[in-house]
Amino acid sequence: MSVSHQPPTTSLQLDAVSSEPPQRPIWQIIMVAAIAAGIQFGWALQLSLLTPYVQLLGIPHKWSSYMWLCGPISGMIVQPLVGYYSDRCTSRFGRRRPFIAGGALLVAVAVFLIGYAADIGVKYGDRIGKNTPKPRAISIFIVGFWILDVANNMLQGPCRALLADLSGSNYRRIRTGNSLFSFFMAVGNVLGYAAGSYNNLYKYFKFTKTHACDVYCANLKTCFLIAIVLLLTITIVALLTLKEDVFVPENVAGEENSLVFFKEIMGAFKMLSRPMWILLLVTCLNWIAWFPFFLFDTDWMGREVYGGKSADSKLYRKGVSAGALGLLLNSVVLGVVSLGIERMTRVCGSVKRLWGGVNMLLAVCLAMTVVVAKVAESQQRFMMVNGEPSHEPSSGVRAGALTLFAVLGIPLSVTFSIPCALASIFSNDSGVGQGLSLGVLNIAIVVPQMFVSFLSGPWDSLFGGGNSPAFVVASIAAAVSGIMAFTLLPSPPCEAVLSKVSGVAPH
User: Fold this and answer.
1) I need a labelling partner for 209 at 20 to 30 A (CA). Which of 105, 181, 338, 435 fits?
2) d(CA 422, CA 428)
3) What is the pTM of this model?
4) Residue 12: exposed, middle, or buried by beta-carbon count in 10 A (0-12, 13-18, 19+)?
């Protein structure tokens, strides 16, 4: 096992091209990026199956939305904490691999608790019945849900940091690694949505259906068991085929504790360079734009496009199913475009132009959701029966809505790759470690999620309900984010260096 005496970060010098250490082979970067498929498979199941499942357990619908706050809250604390300690980890297995392995095991435990919550609850005293409260099952589910969010945050930060470690100071390799991570996220999404939409999957694992767990519950349990096997298999193969250098700090610090961590993270904010601060601001606005879509995409299809007035109406359910198809199309486009991020960057001339351009595309698509909803509403006026449309929207409206889902895969691929790549590059100049810098970036992602989660409901009520008001605000945030990316976000410093070597003029 080789030993590294370098500090967690290295300064990005102008002669980086000539003095850059030997790069790891691309297959190692692919192996690490592939872990994202296992992570995202579970996330896709969460988005498509868990909301009905929590109501099956007896959690009121009005409270179910607050459960999704665990992700932003845990992300705000866990990713910076894990990033900080992974930058300083002196394990003989490396800096990142112990955290990745621990995160994968925690995901397996959490998914088991979620899938078997109903069975465990009945075993310890819950009564069986459709409308019967199941307090023990609910408690087990909530514990599993929180562990899952913590574990996912524990996994993603070190995986992204390891991609940067394997890339050295080569900014193209860093972007390629994050693009591959985005591609495998799309693969996980497609597999997860496909598994969640197949209602008879449980028949291949008949032991999942019990007297406490009906067909829907058994299907969810089966999907989560597949998720455990997929994630653990990919993670074990990746970690066994990859070796990290052991980190030996030159200056051994005193005892590590939570107080030291909070001092370090506050110090990290003080040390951030101006490009990193601009990156955080652009990212924050970008996620104010994205999160309303993630929260309300299928609900928008059910209510505004299909005209369903309640969650149990036939039209609403058809709209939600159409929204699930839209998410599948979105994931396919996300995966395809992720493989072309590097080429798109060259066509646009720079990273900032690419990110600014796709943010403007995001703004247009979010604004078009209002147009599609208004066209659908105008058609519904002429076919109302008992306050609800008698027919589905026209094929043109459905095609328009699904097209928006698909096109949004383009800006989403850039959102999942470019900000993390820029954070890794800018951290070299700020003196902040890769892990901690990505944890700080995650704060700029989760704070908007909390903001949207708390305010979107009152905002919609203020303007008469529906999802259009939140989408209008999201469109404005995306446009501002795009303008700031064009005008304020600097190009990575190494773009100018490499352009001199390749003979390409910097932008």
Assistant:
1) 105
2) 10
3) 0.72
4) middle
